[in-house]
């Protein structure tokens, strides 16, 4: 049996459990049939109706008439010498997105994408140069996890995805509704049941959406891509700062309802000669004084699309030591998968060093972000 239904047919992957149950009812079936099908797709990663062996063929046929099961196609797996795997998926309409599996001892973190490309235009990021093509739907976001889980089951059966970070291609809060739906799907106990404490959403600082996120019942950990200690530098490397500057961003974060023992992670991509001076470290420590936070220092991962340089090991160490001396908790992020262009800021659909799609010619300097 196949779900050869028209494009407008709902994708079971993109539905929340409630919606799947309502769909079953709309097809003249009991609610629990919707739940059964939903569990197959989201809990067991089923990609076809035929796999749903506890649902009779007649019921499957009725479900298939009202819904399809979309899946991403795993087009390529690139393997780093450090164990990191970069997965390239193609969507139903032919676009490429990337996701990264990062093993670390017993843990495995998956970095997933939320958009095809990105509109935010951070100057140090390879994804920015793709521009934004479209949002991923909730099923496409969640399916990256299901396809990665299937790959691990085949290659490393003892390994499980333990942590999830929305730090791949795209600005998650720019695709707010779909990201929220994917979070509800991925945290459901009837699906993969990931704890929201093990999920991190990273934003470049879409302030109104941060305020909205703070009011949600599902609230993942929050990471903020800060990268500068003043507006002059942040305006230059992150055009989004011209719309929501550091003052507005920190004000929104101050009123963000952080739960007990949780803290905001600030990411700080260290760029030689741009934001890596000891004075920058001092300014950063002053800026974040009193915040429940930590700072992840990410020495820039080189790619040909940006004119920056990674600071020397000595400069990196000096920057971190200065932050620590001034009381700011900082952690140095070791690049993972940089030999396969899978490290932070390098995702651009590149295979063996070659770009699969041409970069847009003129980057958008002022992204239309609401
Ligand atoms: S760093 Fe993130 S938000 Fe900025 S351009 Fe890259 S993908 Fe978009």
What would a concise description of this structure say?
This protein has 370 residues and is α/β, with parallel strands linked by helices. The chain is 29% helix and 19% strand. Iron/sulfur cluster (SF4) binds next to loops.
Name given to the CATH homologous superfamily of the largest domain: Aldolase class I
Category from helices, strands and their pairing: alpha/beta
Please give the radius of gyration in angstroms.
21 Å
Side-by-side strand order of the widest sheet: 1-2-3-4-7-8-9-10-11-12
Ligand kinds = iron/sulfur cluster
- Let me know the largest β-sheet: 10 strands, mixed
Q: Which oligomeric state applies? A: single chain
Mean pLDDT: 91
CATH architecture of the largest domain: Alpha-Beta Barrel
Number of strands: 14
Shape: globular
User: Beta-strand percentage?
Assistant: 15-25%
Level of helix content?
25-40%
- Termini separation: 43 Å
Number of helices: 10
Kindly give the count of domains.
2
Give the low-confidence spans: 1-6, 361-367
N-to-C series of helices and strands: HHHEEEEEEHEHEHEHHEHEHEEE
What's the CATH first level of the largest domain? Alpha Beta
CATH topology of the largest domain: TIM Barrel
